[in-house]
User: Which sequence fits this backbone?
C-alpha cells in the first residue's frame, strides 16, 4: 500500500482513474495533484536512501500520452507500457539506471487507448506476428490489484490472432489472471534466484517458494510459462543452491501440469551478473552497505553496444556457469527451450 498518491487531473476523465482515485481517498492516503506524471516534485528525502524509499512508497496516477511504443529487441518487437517502476527494492534492479534516483510508481489509466495503439501496430505488421513485452518499464503485477490492466491486456491478446504478449514478474498475486481467456497468446515468466540471493538482495519481494507456488497456479491455468534466472552469481555453494532451485521447480511444475500441457512450451533465460560503473555508483548510493560482488579487479571488462562497458565474470567462470545450467535444465526439463544464456 503506497504512503502517498499523486494524480494528473486529466486521469480523472477516465473511469479507471476515477476508480483508483476514490479507492485511495477512501483509504485515507494523502493524495495530491501533479502537473505531469513524468516530473513529480514533492517526494522528500534528505539522503539518496530516504529519497529512494519515499519514491518506492509513492504512486502516481497518470495518462500515457505518447502514441509510440519503444522497440524492445531482441526478446520482443515492442514494449507495452502498462506501468512504470515497482514497489520491490532489488539492489540490482534492471530499471534503476533508467528511472533515476526516485523510481516512483506510475500507473496509466488510459488502458483502452494503449490497447488501441497496440492493435494498430499489430495490424500494420500483418501477416507477421508481433510480440509485446509488458515488463520493460515495470514489474506489472504489484499494481494489478489497483488497475486490472494486465487482465484486460491478456484478454485483449487472447483475441488477437497476430499479437503475442509476454512479461516477467517476481510477484505472486496471480489469482485474478487464472480464469481468463489467454488463448496461449501470453507467456507468463517468473524471475527466480536462490533463496539466499533473494534474502540478500531482492528486498520487498516474495520468497522463492511463494513464486513457485504462483508459477504452479499459472501452469495449471494453461499459460505458456518461462523462467528467468537472473542475475546468476558465483557464491559459496552456488552449485548446490541452484541445484536445489531446479529440484523445487521440477516438484512444483510437474505436480500441477494440466492434461494438455506441452513440455516444449517451457522456456528458460539465464543472465549472469554484470555491472557498469554507473550502476555500481547508483547502487552504492542507495545501498551503502551492499554486499553485491562488484570488485572490478575480479571481473572481465567488456565493451557494450552503446559505448559504455560492463564488468562480467571471466570467460572460464562463465563457461563453467553455462555448462552447469545447461546440464541442469537438460536433466530436469529436457524438452524446454533455452532462449539465451549471457
Ligand atoms: Fe526492479 Fe523487478 Fe526488483 Fe521491481 S522486482 S525492483 S522491477 S528487479
Assistant:
Amino acid at each position: 500500500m503506497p504512503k502517498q498518491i499523486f494524480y494528473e487531473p486529466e486521469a480523472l476523465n477516465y473511469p479507471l482513474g476515477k476508480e483508483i482515485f476514490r479507492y485511495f481517498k477512501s483509504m485515507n492516503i494523502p493524495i495530491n495533484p501533479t502537473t505531469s506524471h513524468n516530473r513529480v516534485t514533492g517526494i522528500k528525502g534528505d539522503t539518496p536512501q530516504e529519497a529512494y524509499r519515499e519514491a518506492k512508497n509513492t504512486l502516481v496516477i497518470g495518462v500515457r500520452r505518447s502514441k509510440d511504443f519503444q522497440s524492445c529487441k531482441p526478446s520482443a518487437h515492442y514494449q507495452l507500457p502498462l506501468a512504470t517502476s515497482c514497489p520491490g527494492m532489488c539492489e540490482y534492479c534492471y530499471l534503476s539506471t533508467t528511472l533515476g534516483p526516485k523510481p516512483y510508481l506510475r500507473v496509466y489509466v488510459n488502458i483502452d487507448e494503449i490497447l488501441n495503439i497496440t492493435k494498430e501496430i499489430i495490424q500494420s505488421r500483418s501477416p507477421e506476428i508481433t510480440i509485446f513485452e509488458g515488463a520493460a518499464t515495470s514489474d506489472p503485477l504489484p499494481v494489478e490489484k489497483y488497475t486490472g490492466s494486465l487482465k484486460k491486456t491478456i484478454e485483449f491478446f487472447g483475441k488477437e490472432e497476430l499479437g503475442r504478449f509476454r512479461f516477467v514478474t517476481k510477484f505472486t498475486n496471480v489469482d485474478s489472471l487464472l480464469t481468463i481467456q489467454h488463448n496461449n497468446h501470453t507467456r507468463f515468466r517468473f524471475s527466480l534466484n536462490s533463496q539466499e540471493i533473494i534474502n540478500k538482495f531482492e528486498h520487498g519481494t516474495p520468497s522463492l517458494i511463494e513464486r513457485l507456488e504462483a508459477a504452479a497456479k499459472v501452469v495449471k491455468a494453461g499459460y505458456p510459462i518461462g523462467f528467468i534466472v537472473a542475475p546468476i552469481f558465483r557464491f559459496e555453494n552456488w552449485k548446490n543452491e541452484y541445484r536445489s532451485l531446479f529440484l523445487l521447480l521440477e516438484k512444483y511444475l510437474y505436480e500441477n501440469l494440466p492434461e494438455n500441457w506441452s513440455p516444449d512450451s517451457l522456456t528458460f533465460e539465464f543472465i549472469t551478473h554484470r555491472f557498469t560503473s554507473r550502476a555500481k555508483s547508483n547502487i552504492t548510493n542507495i545501498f551503502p552497505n551492499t554486499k553485491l560482488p562488484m570488485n572490478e579487479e575480479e571481473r572481465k571488462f567488456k565493451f557494450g553496444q552503446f559505448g559504455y562497458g560492463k564488468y562480467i565474470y571471466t570467460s572460464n567462470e562463465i563457461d563453467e556457469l553455462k555448462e552447469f545450467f545447461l546440464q541442469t535444465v537438460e536433466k530436469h526439463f529436457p524438452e524446454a527451450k533455452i532462449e539465451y544464456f549471457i
Q: What stands out?
A: The mean pLDDT is 95. Residues 66-341 form a domain with the pyruvate-formate lyase- activating enzyme fold (CATH 3.80.30.30). The longest helix spans residues 315-332. The pocket of iron/sulfur cluster is lined by residues 86, 88-90, 93-95, 139, 170, 205 (CB under 6 Å).
